[in-house]
Amino acid sequence: xxxxxxxxxxxxxxxxxxxxxxxxxxxxxxxxxxxxxxxxxxxxxxxxxxxxxxxxxxxxxxxxxxxxxxxxxxxxxxxxxxxxxxxxxxxxxxxxxxxxxxxxxxxxxxxxxxxxxxxxxxxxxxxxx
Length: 129
What we know:
Blueprint: H1 16-26, H2 28-31, H3 42-53, H4 57-66, E1 70-72, H5 80-90, E2 95-97, E3 103-107, E4 110-114, H6 118-122, E5 126-128
Parallel strand pairs: 1-2, 2-5
Antiparallel strand pairs: 3-4
């Protein structure tokens, strides 16, 4: 961002975990986050809760008003619940995923190869780099 001279106040960088924590704990009634800091499988509960929260129209409007687009790096390392959240976000804002070509995105049901244009049929709302 510095190289492109984008002012720091115009960009916000966060992890999927950090972003999910903010939204899940901000809307606990719908997100049902774990109590305290998530451990082990509670991370899935957190990501799924954040995905549930952004289904609420008012919360969707907050996301739409707060961001112009979503970039997800190291997408091949996302698990099922993170993929669920990324897919939900992609229905609200343009979502661009970055990952290693020819490396599988693994999940509980096995691994799926994420390669170039093939990913567009797997996740139509994503742009893949």
